[in-house]
Amino acid sequence: MSKQQDGDLGEQTGCEFLRKQGYKILERNFRIKGGEIDIVAREGKVLVFVEVKTRWSHEYGPPVESMTGWKIRSLLKTAKFYIQKINWGEKEYRLDFVGVDFAADTVSPKIELIKNITG
User: Fold this and answer.
1) Which GO terms describe its molecular function (predicted)?
2) Structural domain tally of the chain?
């Protein structure tokens, strides 16, 4: 599988998982120059920007280790652009993380959800 196919499978798995958790998926792969949000969703009245990271091995560490300070700042910049685009105003939003880990089981991945990754 290509890196793009890996990412697409991880994002699809992440979307299915989030739907089961009660999230409503609004958009996937929102892009601006210099940034991308994998999934834009709502959980109740909260707008949620979700970063999905898929791993097939732990050669570069588990999925959550990809969430560096630089990555979080980039995601927040893109999220703020989206918020302005849709006139979200001062309503609540947050950044969540979904790790899809196929390293131990390529059929049933371990899925980790971290809400409000920014703290």
Assistant:
1) nucleic acid binding
2) 1
